[in-house]
UniProtKB/TrEMBL annotation:
Annotated pathway: Carbohydrate degradation; glycolysis; D-glyceraldehyde 3-phosphate from glycerone phosphate: step 1/1; Carbohydrate biosynthesis; gluconeogenesis
The protein's Enzyme Commission number: 5.3.1.1
Domain of life: Bacteria
Description of how the protein assembles with itself and partners: Homodimer.
HAMAP family xref list: TIM_B (MF_00147_B)
Protein name per UniProt: Triosephosphate isomerase
Length: 250
């Protein structure tokens, strides 16, 4: 089963509209490599300009969050209906920063994942353990619980389209990365969890990224592993040259 590698930049709360469009002008044509999917997940404010700039390119634009309702009295929130209307293709769901700072539970992550599919958005669902969970040997159990919760209620066709990002929390933005062998071990396990929920054929289609201090100089090592299909990248996705190098290295 060949899965198209997917590199997604997670800009977090960085870049104004003018910074985002200047970035895009620099990566256009360069962060477009045949056989690698290139995604930029930007703050909501930069999405309209980026969607416009990305027209005619192979770079997809993603959001970093979505509300699970289509509309309503949810001050400050943005729905899947609205993102789809903009032309956004991907949405990051359940990033550890959202789980930690905005109290996103597994149940909310699942509702957002279901909402993404309702509007034809592809979810990038983040799972991963905290340092203390890693140290107590709970990594796989934590990933199993988070993965099973996220996939609840998805059809086999939808499940096959999910992009999972395995991000050990202790490796995010810290410069400490999981070894590629350790990441492969957990990601292979997550694929097995998905096979248990559906079957081997569905699990073989799901793309699973590694995330946590991925840089241009280590991206190919992760992608060389059998079950690692890409990377979700924070810090190293913010500079055009680095983002291009990530795509080229994939
Ligand atoms: C992330 O934001 O999902 C991430 C993995 O960040 P970094 O690459 O900076 O560790």
């Amino acid at each position: 089963m060949s899965r198209t590698p997917i590199i997604a930049g997670n800009w977090k709360m960085f870049k104004t509209v003018s910074e985002a469009t200047a970035f895009f002008a620099e990566v256009k044509g360069k962060a477009e490599v045949a056989g690698v999917e290139s995604v930029i997940c930007a703050p909501f404010t930069a999405l309209p300009a980026l969607v416009e700039a990305a027209k005619g390119t192979t770079i997809a634009i993603g959001a970093q969050n979505v509300h699970f309702e289509d509309n309503g009295a949810y001050t400050g929130e943005v729905s899947g209906l609205m993102l789809k209307d903009l032309g956004v293709k991907y949405v990051i769901i359940g990033h550890s920063e959202r789980r930690a700072y905005f109290a996103e539970s597994d149940e909310i992550v699942n509702k957002k994942t279901v909402a993404a599919f309702k509007h034809g958005l592809t979810p990038i669902v983040c799972v991963g353990e905290k340092l203390e969970e890693r140290e107590s040997g709970a990594t796989k159990e934590v990933c199993k619980v988070q993965t099973e919760a996220a996939f609840q209620g998805l059809s086999a066709e939808q499940a096959a389209e999910v992009v999972v990002a395995y991000e050990p929390i202790w490796a995010i933005g810290t410069g400490k990365s999981s070894t590629s062998d350790d990441a492969q071990d957990v990601i292979g396990y997550i694929r097995g969890v998905i096979a248990g929920l559906y079957d081997e054929a569905v699990a073989a289609k799901v793309r699973i990224q590694y995330g946590g201090s991925v840089k241009p100089n280590n991206v190919s090592e992760y992608l060389g592993q059998a079950d690692i299909d890409g990377a979700l990248v924070g810090g190293a996705s913010l500079e055009p040259a680095s983002y291009i190098a990530l795509i080229e290295g994939a």
